[in-house]
Design a protein that fits this description.
The structure holds two protein chains of two kinds.
Chain A lengths: L7 E10 L6 E8 L4 H4 L7 E6 L3 E6 L10 E6 L3 H7 L6 E8 L12 E7 L4 H11 L10 E7 L8 H9 L4 E6 L10 E2 L2 H8 L7 E6 L2 H14 L6 E4 L15 E2 L2 E2 L6 E3 H5 L7
Parallel strand pairs in A: 7-8, 7-11, 8-9, 9-10, 11-12
Antiparallel strand pairs in A: 1-2, 1-6, 2-5, 3-4, 3-6, 12-15, 13-14
Chain B lengths: L1 E6 H11 L4 E8 L2 E6 L25 E8 L11 E2 L7 E6 L1 H14 L7 H9 E6 L25 E6 L2 E6 L2 H10 L10 H11 L14 H6 L3 H5 L7 H5 L6 E8 L2 E8 L20 H20 L10 H5 L6 H10 L5
Parallel strand pairs in B: 2-6, 6-7, 7-8
Antiparallel strand pairs in B: 1-9, 2-3, 4-5, 4-11, 8-9, 10-11
Classes of the chains: A alpha/beta, B alpha/beta.
């Protein structure tokens, strides 16, 4: 068995500034060794440890989709020691990627169902992976209606703008893009917080409709009651959590909430499951 | 299972014979207490000890260990790529481990050896180790192993159990690993274990302290989590981490890169859920910023989460180290009683 702590060596293939304030960058990595990409077979919703020898490791959701081959992509917010270093790295630099880790969005179980994807801020990465997966010609017909509600603070903070524009034009996905506020007169999309937009734009709940939600704590807090109001049962609300992690494989002992380890039993849980797990902040 | 009689006079020469095939670890007196150390050539484990101050978990799980090395020198062809560290996993033996600490190793194994992942460092060290236990004839006043599914003569997790019997040890070789070690030591005289039952009963009778856990499995995690007991329990805690370092069943670790010039080592170090940094996010947000949350985490993990997750009892073997060494007298038995007795208002 291979050492689960050992990262696959990768080369930075491209770096894109993802937001106007430059606090997020999207990194595309290419595996150095033949066969490693196949070993890193992942599903939407999983994460990996970005491993920079000399600095450390950080757990980051995988932004690329399993349907995209030849690379793996992450969008990273600059916040601590490792992410600051990563933001200063250059195309061609060598580092490591360890994973894939954790469970994934249960897309197999959602075949034949309608899906509403609700995201905000920079927690849109694994949701981007999910959307790309769902829209792949090989997959799209296996799913029902797809709605996406995505909000950012202002137009400059929207991730994956080029792709959003393309998705906007498609008739097999309903995009509801919003910003908290803007003084840009050319802004043609929604203005308002994600919970408000969810209330007016999300499809009504039924037996066949599931919500996948990922975002900052405040957005989650205020969107949950909206979904309740729309009639979504808690086993149909799927969420992704995060916590400080080191090993990412359920061993080092720090990311638990109750008896569940976010790194291994999660990061994806239904709201029904979360009701039986303590909120560690209290 | 083989029963062997070891004449105490032959103990030293037997240990000496083991050194050709085993690295030996055993209790060694340091100042006023004992700790498990790798024995130097000619050094004997001091078996006249109560129990060690720190548990012997370090024999398979060192406080600090190297995971990988790397070069940061871009002139080096393999720079920024992790290299395995060559480790010595030749046979080793822990001599004189107490039965509680041996049971702790088998509990901790459930964390490091799972269906999905095998921790190579812990498991390779564990598999290389033969555990030679020493039954307790004189338990400490803080021992409560008999109420944790363990006991002073417990055999769980041991390859050999030694029972002191006058001028000899009665050795029960419990596993093939244990028999191999007995052979290597030249301990071959067939023995008689009929004296063990009475000694075991006598030792167990000396243990008067206990931990109440009988109702813990029927409790609901959320009820215990929200119970109004944690402010009181955590009030005096100073977050010194002594309990977690001394505990034989605490396994949490941190991973850190240590650089020197253009090369470095990725290390793993014991960590403690008692420190705020343990859970602090990069954003500064900390789900366990208050000591109440941290103290609750430690006891909920030991007495409820582990119990529910594995259905193998609590994550405590009753060694009593945390009770003895806590500078502010927080006592896991009192905490467990509070949890065990707690009834949520309906």
């Amino acid at each position: 068995m291979e050492n689960p702590y050992k990262a696959y060596p990768v080369r930075i293939d491209s770096i894109d500034v993802a937001t106007q304030d430059k606090s997020l960058r999207t990194f595309k990595f290419v595996f150095l060794n033949e066969g490693d990409e196949e070993k890193f077979a992942y599903e939407s919703g999983q994460f990996a440890e970005l491993s920079i020898p000399g600095k450390g490791e950080i757990p980051i959701g995988i932004a690329s989709s399993p349907t995209e081959k030849g690379f793996v992509k992450f969008t990273v917010f600059r916040t601590g020691l490792v992410t600051n270093h990563l933001h200063n790295m250059k195309v061609g630099d060598i580092m490591g990627v360890r994973g894939p880790l954790g469970n994934s969005y249960p897309l197999k179980d959602l075949e034949g169902k309608n899906i509403v994807i609700i995201g905000a801020g920079f927690a849109f990465t694994t949701l981007r992976s999910t959307i790309v997966y769902l829209l792949d010609p090989k997959n799209r017909s296996r799913f029902g209606n797809i709605d996406v509600i995505y909000g950012a603070r202002n137009p400059g903070m929207i991730l994956y703008k080029d792709e959003l524009t393309v998705w906007e034009k498609r008739d097999d996905i309903n995009m509801h893009i919003t910003v908290d506020s803007t003084d840009d007169p050319s802004w043609t999309y929604h203005t308002g917080f994600v919970p408000t937009i969810t209330e007016t734009q999300a499809p009504k709940a039924d037996e066949n409709t599931y919500a996948i939600m990922c975002g900052p704590p405040m957005m989650l807090k205020f969107t949950k009651p909206v979904l309740d109001k729309l009639g979504y049962s808690h086993d149909k609300i799927i969420m992704s959590l995060e916590n400080r992690m080191k090993c990412g494989i359920g061993i080092c002992g720090r990311c638990n909430i109750g008896k569940e380890l976010i790194c291994k039993d999660g990061p994806v849980f239904t709201l029904e499951q979360l009701k039986h797990m303590p909120e560690e902040d209290t | 299972m083989k029963v062997i009689n070891i004449d105490k006079e032959k103990w030293a020469s037997g240990v000496e014979s083991l050194t050709s095939t085993y690295r030996l670890f055993g209790p060694v007196k340091e100042d006023d207490s004992h700790n498990f150390k790798e024995l130097k050539k000619g050094e004997l484990p001091d078996l006249a000890y109560g129990n060690s101050k720190l548990s012997p978990k370090s024999a398979v799980f060192p406080p600090s260990e190297a995971m990988f090395t790397y070069s940061l020198d871009e002139k080096n062809e393999n720079h920024h790529i992790l290299n395995d560290v060559k480790k010595d996993y030749s046979p080793r033996a822990v001599l004189g481990i107490r039965p509680c600490d041996a049971k702790a190793v088998s509990l901790v194994r459930m964390n490091f050896d799972t269906k999905e992942y095998r921790d190579p460092y812990w498991m390779d060290a564990f598999e290389a180790t033969t555990f030679v236990g020493l039954a307790c004839d004189n338990p400490c006043s803080t021992c409560f192993c008999t109420s944790t599914g363990c006991g002073p003569f417990s055999e769980e997790g041991l390859d050999v159990l030694l029972v002191e019997n006058g001028n000899a040890y009665i050795a029960k070789a419990l596993t093939a690993k244990g028999e191999k070690l007995m052979d290597a030591a030249g301990f071959k005289t067939a023995g008689d274990d009929s004296a063990i039952a009475a000694k075991k009963a006598a030792a167990e009778a000396k243990i008067t302290a206990s931990i109440e856990t009988d109702k813990l499995s029927e409790k609901v995690i959320m009820d215990l989590y929200d119970a109004p007991i944690w402010d009181d329990i955590s009030f005096s805690c100073i977050n010194c981490c002594t309990c977690t370092y001394a505990c034989p069943t605490c396994w949490c670790f941190d991973i850190q890169d240590e650089n020197k010039g253009l090369s470095g080592v990725r290390m793993r170090n014991w960590d403690s859920c008692m420190t705020p940094l343990f859970t602090m996010h990069g954003s500064g947000h900390n789900p366990r910023s208050q000591k109440k949350q941290r103290v609750r985490q430690r006891f909920m993990h030991k007495l409820k989460y582990f119990l529910d997750k594995y259905q193998k009892g609590i994550m405590c073997v009753g060694c009593g180290r945390c009770v003895q060494q806590c500078p502010v007298n927080i006592d896991i038995r009192t905490v467990s009683k509070k949890m065990n007795d707690y009834v949520a208002a309906s």
